[in-house]
Every structure is written in C-alpha cells, then in structure tokens.
Predict the structure.
Amino acid sequence: MTDKLYKPSEKTINEAIIKEYDNKYKFSIDNSDKYWEEQAEYLDWYKKWDKVVDESNAPFYKWFSGAKTNIIHNAIDRHLSDSHRNKLAFIWQGEPGDERHFSYHKLDKEVSAFANILKAMGVRKGEIVTIYMPQIPELIFAMLACAKIGAAHSVVYAGFSREALAERIKDASSKVLLTADGGWRRGKIVDLKSIANEAMKRSPTIEVCITVKRTGQEVEMEQNRDFWYHDLCALPIASGKCETEEMNAEDMLFILYTSGTTGKPKGIVHAHGGYSVYISSVLRTVFDIKEDDRWWCAADPGWITGHSFIVYAPLINGATTVLYEGAPTYPYPDRFWRIISNYGVNILYTSPTAIRGLMRFGDSWVKKHDVSSLRLLGTVGEPINPAAWEWYYNIVGDGNCQIMDTWWQTETGGFMISPYPITPLKPGSATKPLFGIDADVVDEDGNKVKPGEQGILVIKKPWPGMAQTILHDADRFKEVYWSKYEKQGWYLAGDSARIDEDGYFWIIARLDDVIKVSGYRLGTAEVESALVSHSSVAEAAVITLPHELRGNAIHAYVILSQDYTASDKLNDIIKEHVRSEMGPIAVPETIKFVDSLPKTRSGKIMRRVLKAKAQGLDPGDLSTIED
Ligand code: WTA
C-alpha cells in the first residue's frame, strides 16, 4: 500500500464546496441535528418536520418525523415549474447502440403514464411491486412510478435466477410483477420473461405481470395475467395527470434484498424522507454535482448503487444521469470511453472490478477518445487496489481528476466514508468519514484501537440514509446490526478496518460470511444452500480467494452423497445447478470434491481453515477443530 499523498487538482479545488474539513466535521458531529436540518433545507417538503430525528424507538430511528414528502416531489415535480423542465434528466444508451433522451418534462410524462397504469391494475399505497427488468429506461420509470403513487418497489437484479426471484416475490407478497421480454448483454439476448414465468409458477400472490418489449423474441403470455406494457400505454387509462401521493417522511420507499450471514436474503427497507435528504446531500457534497453536470454511474440499477446514484440522487439534484444497458467491453473495450466522449460525461462512478477489467486492455483504448470532459472519478463496492487506482487516476483522469473512493452499504443508503474533492488522497483508502458520520474502528469491547491496528468498523451516531428495518424481521435487524454494541447504541457495519496516523480509513474485509465477487454482494450460506440443494451434494463449504479481475472468486468444497462419484461432468452439472438456483454471479470458479470438511466441535464449518490451506498459509488456532 502506498502512502503517497495525491493533492486535489486545480480543476476541482476551485469548485469544491468544502473548504475546511476538520472544523466542519467536528461541527457536524457535535451538532448533527443542525447539520442534517441544513441538508434537508435543500429539498422541498409538503410539510416540514416536527423533529429532525425521533430516537424514542432506537434503533428504529425516525428521520424528519412529522414531515410530509414524496421523493418524486423532489426528483421530478419541483423541476417542472420553470425552464428546468426542458433540461435533460436522463440519457440512455442500449447495448446495440440505440439511444433515448428524456427531459424532466418527458420523464414526468413517462412516469405518470406508468403510475396511471399501476393504479389501474389495482396497485395501492403501501404495497410492494416487484421489478425484474434489464437496464432500460422503463426500469427507471417503473421505480419512479411506484414511488409516485406511494407503493414500494422491490427491484430484483436481472442476473438472478427464477428461484431467487420467486423467493423475493414471496417475501414481499407482491401482486404485480414488472418485467421485460429480455435485455442485451455482450451481443446476446438475456431472457427474462421465461425466467419470470417460471418464478410466477411458484408465486401464488402474483395477479398481474406487465412486460416491456425490449428484444422482440417470442415469449409466452398467459391470458388475464400478462399484459404488454406498450398495449397498456395505448389505452386511455395511461394518459392524463397523475398526482404525486403525499407520504409521511418515514413511509417505505423501497425494499432491496441483500445478502447476510444466513441463507435468507434480507429485505432492507428505506424510507422517503431521510433517504432523499441523505443521498442527495452526499452526492452534492462528495461529487460537487451541479445541474449542468452529466453524471454517469456505471452500475446496475438493480443494486443499491443504481437506486441511489443512477436514479434518485442525480434527479433530486437536477442533473443529467446516464444509463447504459450492456457490457463495458462490448463490442470493443472502449465502450466506456466512447460513451464519456459522446455525451461529455463530467463524472464517472464505477467499481474496481470494472476498472481492472478495462485496464487489462491497455491505455490505447482510452487514449483514442477525448475524455477531457471528466472532472471527477468515483469508485465503490470493494477496496480498490493501488495499481487500478493509479491507472484510473493517470490514464482515465489524465492525472487531473480526484478519485472519490466511497465506502458504504445497501443498509447505509449512500456514501459514508469518502473523500470530498478537496481531500488529499491515498490510493486504496476511502479517506475520512463524511460530515455527520461518526465512524470509528474499535475492538471487541468497543475501545478505540491504536492507529494502524485492525479493528471493527462502527458508526456511532444515526444518519438520515440508514435502513429503517428488515422487512418482516425487525428482530433480525436489531440482532445483525445493533446487538454487538447494544450498550453503546452503535451500528455494526460488518467490515474490518484500520485508521492510520493521518486519520485515514482503510477498509480491510468483511467480518461475517458476506462475500464480494466483482463488487456483487453474496452470502456464503446462500451459495452453500444452492449447492446442497443438488441431489449429489451432501455438504458444501464456500470460500473466496483473491482474483485478479473480480477481486474475489468463489471456491467450493463439496462432500458427495452416497451413490455419486466425482467426475468433471458432475462438476459441470453442479455448477449449472448453482447458475439456475442463484444466477451466474454465484457460480463457483472451482468445485473440489472432498471426503470431509474442517468443523468445530459444535459442527460449524471452519472456512478460515479451508482458506488458509488453499493459500498455503498457517491455518492458525485449531483448538476448536473436531477432527
Ligand atoms: C464493501 C455497495 C472497500 C464493504 C455500495 C461493504 C467497500 C460492502 C467499498 C457493502 C469501498 C463497498 N472500499 N469496501 N469503497 N464500498 N465496500 O451492500 O465490504 O452491496 O460492507 O453496497 O461492500 O456492499 P453493498
């Protein structure tokens, strides 16, 4: 790890909002209510709050309690009153090269039509609509339309399997599913409707499925349940104004499933008020975003990064947001740089995996294009290795754009630890906590660890973007995030970290059984349960090992059931099974057939022993091992 300091460039420092980090940080922590109230004043409210944060039922904090709002009021409606409505809200590029542009005025029309259709289909305030779509404009319209009428959305990443989709529909008790025939990825059609159909066979709650035509292949539609979106758009029900529903600040905006320690994914709940304030505030301050900016968050809308930073935060800030449908290297490895140069993108926000994936093709693909419109760069999802950082900084940013390495989580709503444009950078460090965020690194007992020592990352004060709860499982919410430091009332992030002599935070790894592959978050337990659901697998354990491109790769150890013998063919069959149970991102890189697994005497698999062995390292303390 290098400790060289990268000073902010001329290009950003003049425009930075934040001049004196230390003083301002201290003020924001000592007066956090005041700080968040100031941030909330950037937004319009139907009715303002009685209290900035109601802590009476902690850890179920209620932000801006008593306030009335709707995220759509800030993301769309307030931009319609003046000439801003003619500004570009959203530029979309499909993988085959097709493009669509939407002004705020046009976005409002699209969202209102979708909202009218949802209402006509019986969707009511408070219910949860499941969305399973490729990265097309209608995905964004669908999310915004749900929010507009006060329904919550649950977007299921389009790479997930029918099993994963069915499980999420069931947990949310959705009556309506929104999908598409398919999407484009690496020049091929990714089938979605057929997977949705399979999932619906297992989902008795679904009454209506609306399908957007994207790819045009034959799909199976069931009478009285299935409707084409374009058919519904042509009906009178779709036209006309649709009022934005007035919501309480703490009403549910969306749920998003994310992986945890156990096999069952957690439905993380975010609310209209606090979330709106938080994500728009951190985007405005960290990326110094302005209405004239073209902001490209090259993530999938199906994950929190897309929810907060493709859809909601840039729109609330009145900027232009870019969405690209397909693979970064299709048809050539310059697709990103071409998009940046074509649209004059000012800020690019992506993942270390994407950067490493593009870096391996060399500098010339970048140099071919004029990407000088870039002012700032960003990264998220996993620690960025210094080599990728340097390439991003020197080649993509031409040594002229600061890199905002943002640490945060599905549960935090938005960035938590990150530089501001004026922060001197150290490659690989997310630098310092943002204003209002009381982050620290402590030991098991909650004592602050010494500079440079590894410890447990905690957040000591609530913040407006924090998750409200886990859907249908408030106890699990308390247990997972708030029980370890219950006495102190701190949030347990689940990551280990260290703070160096200069107060810079270095995120090290997950402390729990959550794994990160290409920045995607999965649980070892989810992958293991997908493995053992195959008849040949009696027991399974999953570890990750470092991978040059993906950060981490999954490796599985499997004990076969009686009657099965190890073979390459069986190896492939099991991989295919995981693909259909969970989706392609969960497929192990290798599967090893073994006769036994290292276990504690209480029967827990000791994954760290497997990992150490695979890396040729000392497995450490083996006193609790059974055999
Ligand atoms: C990891 C993604 C290092 C971390 C927004 C966290 C990071 C988990 C960074 C959350 C970063 C995210 N540096 N690690 N800049 N950003 N992580 O919920 O382990 O998909 O706990 O949210 O990703 O993953 P999630």
